[in-house]
Amino acid sequence: MKEKLIIVESPSKAKAIQSYLGSGHVVVSSKGHIRDLATSGKGGLGIDVESNFEPSYQIIKGKQTLVNDLKKQAKSRDVLIATDQDREGEAIAWHIAQVLDLNINEENRVVFSEITKQKILDAVKQPRKIDTGLVNSQETRRMLDRIIGFKLSTLLQSKIKSKSAGRVQSVALKLIVDLEKEIQAFIPKTYFDIEAMYQGIKAEYIKNKDQLSKETTDLILQEAVNPFIVSALDINEKERKSKEAFKTSTLQRDAYSYLSYSSTKTMMLAQYLYEGIEINGELTGLITYMRTDVTRLSDEFVNDAMTYIETEFGKAYLGSYKTTKDSNAQDAHEGIRPTKLTFTPEYVKQHVDRESIKDEKLFDDAMKLYQRIYGRTLASLMAPAILEHTKVTLTSNQHDFTMKGIRLVFDGFLKVYEESKNKDIILPKFTQNQHIEMEEIVSIEKQTQPKPRYNEASMIKKLDELGIGRPSTYASIIKTLIDRGYVNKEKNLQPTEQGILTSNELDKFFKDIINTDYTADMESHLDKIAEGDFDKMSILKNFYEMFMPMLDDAKENMKKIQPVMLEETCPECGSQLVIRKSKYGEFVACSGFPKCKYIKKEEVSEN
Asked: Which listed residue (261, 289, 370, 474) is catalytic?
């Protein structure tokens, strides 16, 4: 019987799977993509537009030796391709099959959602064909991104010295810039609030719809005096239901809000947890695949979890399984969950093989993320918490103040998962008509506030809600905007002057394609290509016919930013020196370029 060659994406994943499968199997890594669109041909697109958008692929630079080794390894073995279970992974599998000259109609593709021994053994026994629908969808996306990225980036570099543009990246930038325009146009209005303090807890003045003026607050302060009377006491119990298991976007948002992790860091740590940690001598993946659009949990996991919850916490803590079908979800993957409930965060920390941990900080940060994933998954199947909500109305001379608080009656899912760092306010015991003495009553001058700028969490939420891009790309979108100098991260996601200029020019000439509706519709079309309901050629053709006239108009009419002239002259030819921009920042050079190629050594500033 022939040996089997299993090709995965990552070297660490290969190590774990090799240990599970043992003899008769050789597991190797492709280290991600091995091919991409060529940069040759007309416009450097790697796409022959005139021949029905025929793509031309080439081995990625630096990967030829690896590809040669894969070919050598595959010669005498049966090949199974076990790349990730998403569109990108399916495309990588197809490229590997093409390079190794495998039969696309044969069942040589295996997928798994977690790196645990039993799941890997089961997957290898159930190979399937490469899903050409997913491959077509990814190929269409890649060609769209290449056309827009190459042509728009070249245009912007030549006209306004911006570094790049992208199909989704530029829409995200537009969201940030449009919000900034709202913020800058906002005119604040001054108003007053009145607060009273009792035992360190704030009571707020109940006002009508109108904002309070200074004169009104001064009058209230004169009339609202001690003692105050408890004029109304509203106490009722409410359920607080747990949220569903994490998907990619909600994991990124939670990690940002709760752990202060950037989306890039979150995905790096999630990859680390997915690929595995050595526990009791065995490399084991701790979570399921972290790039997913859904919150679904397998029946097997739900059943095991219900048994675990009842055993560990009691029958009262049993909840129900709930999930929402997201219209933007690309496949029926599972949500992000622990692979084994017995691998509690405490158990992992206690049984991890310390000698295998090369980076303690990485491990500690990953464990904090694992704690959130573990708790959130378990909580999603647990009973609601029951909270007693108390609303107290305190009155003095017909002026009413309100104080709100919460008391935990039954912890339910909160036993394993803290939803946020905000602590509930616990009120002292009040009785109807009770007289109390306020510690202080003050008026506070305030101003109406504009909408807050996006931070990473709210940006991801917005992109997710609008159906723009894919959750797996959100981290790279935000990182690109920062790296290109379009967005300043220090004040949340505030656009720079260059970012605003870039968005404005794109909006002027490409508003019909660089907008939220068109981009979300394109995601829907890509989904339908994956399902076999749409022809990729018609999508590409319609886009190209719409895009090229816009590009031609922009080439002719977009104003070119001229370099800033300096009073200094060139020491080589005597022409005036100017400040120019490059992808590395600003520099001083001769205005006589290209005849004179003088560049001043010291840099003016870093962009």
From this structure: 289
